[in-house]
């Protein structure tokens, strides 16, 4: 192999293989947590919207899923030790805010209080269902 080719190809190959080995095992766990929280949030949003008798099934699921993604993102910023100790008030507030903003973006901002209630229910459901003791 040509010496200049070795000097250019091998370092980048080493860097790529090291990045692949260290990052790939961490991704499925993060993706599973995100999908779990989005699913719980979407289901809670649908149930909350049905109980209140407001909004369509799809819109309620979208707002609940956005609340779940926001709750997951906020809990992902904590350090490893505190990640298992979720804060109910924080999850409810983040879910309510995310659902309200999503309602404004999707054009369903006419019922901002209802959107906040749906998001708060989604945040509370995620907190209760994923809390580790």
Q: What report would you give on this structure?
A:
- The chain is globular and about 70 Å long.
- It has six helices and no strands.
- The protein has one domain (28-130).
- Residues 18-27 have low confidence and may be disordered.
- Helix 2 (26-52) crosses helix 3, helix 2 packs across helix 6 and helix 3 (57-76) packs across helix 5 (88-105).
- With 133 residues, the chain is mainly α.
- The chain has helices at 3-23, 26-52, 57-76, 80-83, 88-105, 112-130.
Question: Ends: how far apart?
Answer: 57 Å
Order of helices and strands: HHHHHH
State the major sheet.
none
Shape: globular
**Which regions contain 5 or more consecutive residues with pLDDT less than 50?**
18-27
Number of domains: 1
Radius of gyration: 20 Å
Look at the structure and give the mean pLDDT. Answer: 79
Number of strands: 0
DSSP strand (E) fraction? under 5%
Number of helices: 6
Structural class: mainly alpha
Primary descriptors:
133 residues, 82% helix, 0% strand, globular
Topology:
Elements: H1 3-23, H2 26-52, H3 57-76, H4 80-83, H5 88-105, H6 112-130
Helix pairs in contact: 2-3, 2-6, 3-5, 3-6, 5-6
Summarize this, please?
With 133 residues, the protein is mainly α. The chain contains 6 helices and no strands.
């Amino acid at each position: 192999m040509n010496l200049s080719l070795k000097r250019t190809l091998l370092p980048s190959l080493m860097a790529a293989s090291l990045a692949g080995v260290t990052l790939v095992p961490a991704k499925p766990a993060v993706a599973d947590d995100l999908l779990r929280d989005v699913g719980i949030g979407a289901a809670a949003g649908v149930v909350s919207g049905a109980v209140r008798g407001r909004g369509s099934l799809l819109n309620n699921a979208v707002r609940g899923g956005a609340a779940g993604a926001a709750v997951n993102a906020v809990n992902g910023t904590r350090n490893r030790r505190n990640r298992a100790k979720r804060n109910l008030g924080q999850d409810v507030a983040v879910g309510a805010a995310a659902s309200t903003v999503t309602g404004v973006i999707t054009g369903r901002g006419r019922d901002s209080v209802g959107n906040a209630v749906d998001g708060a229910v989604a945040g509370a459901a995620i907190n209760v269902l994923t809390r580790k003791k």
